[in-house]
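Quick look at the format.
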Amino acid sequence: MLLLLRLTLSRHDNKWTLGYKRKSMWQATLAIVKEGGPFALLAGLGPTFIGYLIEGGVKFGIYEVSKPVTKRFVAGLASFFSNPALDSRILSLVLCGFISGSAASLMLSPMEALRIRMVSDAKFSDMNLVQAGSTMIKQEGIRSLLKGLPAMFWKQVPYTITKNCSFDIFCSWLYQVWMGLGYAVTANAKFAIPLVSAALAAVLSCISSHPGDMLLSLVNAHEGTKRTRDFAKEIYDGKDGVKGFFVGIKPRFVHVMLIVTVQLMIYDFTKRLVGIAATGMG
């Protein structure tokens, strides 16, 4: 994440990361290690770990709990408007993703603000989580921890919808294909099918959330009053246009593929462990 952040900020003239502006992913990695040693790659790990631990519990918990609620809601919509097409499993899952992604954004925003400032601002680089937080609040007020919330919504909501919903849909489809071919759903199948589904979901969630991730980095690294929309307009009006929103996506693919695949495998295993049907089987 440090590598991705510095590559992203360097394209937008962040004074501490200009040295990475024309570096490839590998060159930037070597530069970070040369400057601060191998452990420099772990900068900001504290807020990342705490933030995503809380966010993961909230996101997956709300996503699973809201499934019967959204299922009844879309069924009610279909009945009210006399339109059977509205009674859609995909629509129900998208609503679950929207609700859980929104809740996760609220939980994660303060920790992301701290993480980004700790790895993008030299003044914060040697501080721990508590010191960085108290310094930001003292200098910029409590709102500094939430100024990236709009960008966080742009990141987390598409991320959650594509990650969780596509995982559900891919698992359902692959189980149907597997059983349609006459094969039994063995323990090996219950490992392989979620693994393939998780990898596919990771690719989609990385692509859908990258513009929001870039905006989040820029907003939280900035000490002024520029808003998310200002940075979005700046990127769009730049020389790369829409492509500018996908700067740094290559190193993020490595990060997201690993994290999301592991998350979704744990999610599916935990569901089965507590007696909930495997993803795609319920």
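Next, a different chain entirely:
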Amino acid sequence: LYAMPFTQLAGASAAAKALAPTACTTIEEVGSTGVGALTLGFLALAVSSVVMVAKAYSADAERRKYYFCNAFICGVATFSYFAMLSGQGWTAIAGCRQFFYARYVDWFITTPLLILDLGLVAGQDFVTIAAVIGADMLMIVAGYMGAVSVVTTVKWFWFLFGLAMFLPVVYSLARTFRETVITRKDPEMIELYGKIAWLTIIMWSFYPIVWLFSEGFASFSVSFEVVAYTIMDIISKAVFSFMIVSAHDSLGSPSQAPAQSREYV
């Protein structure tokens, strides 16, 4: 009578062991090309961080919020790239492949700041900004969980969860925020938002593609993955930040105060 529970327990334990990753005798690690990309990413983001901090301290209060936001975006990314360049912030995942989880820590912090920056430029209300940031953070968590998943089916469910969170983020940046900035009737800010929003949407659309063939199918080499992510990080963070700096005069417009909550009847 009591044999069945123990038999089931033994079967469950055997199944768990079968799903657990085997010890790796050899790990596919980043090569010299990837290390070069990490070095370039670290230098580009470090310089951008210094420039943003300098601009923040020389700007008035209205412009300073943009520059400090940019400084933290580039600063956190700089720390992440230093960690990866120093051989930290990684582990081996299924398939004995080097996986840089430091990148996900970076994205979990910097992508919400990028959305905040876009929201400030658009003049969007903070409740909507917070909602978009929430979806974005769930997207990053889903991407991380998918990358470290051992069970293939679970991995692809996480990938789909991440895409499900990505869609409302893109919709908000392309339409909700854009509609708000148009109501400001400031041609320069409308033009600036259009540029940085589409830069963000286009760059962020490449991330799941790289994930698909790196952490997903493991078709790309670790070095190619690192190079691809580095290029996208530099453009979506450093270039993004300097595009905002280039609109220095427009950022001081008093019409850019945060939008007031709308009343619905």
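Residues 152-183 form the longest helix (32 residues).

See the schema section for token definitions.
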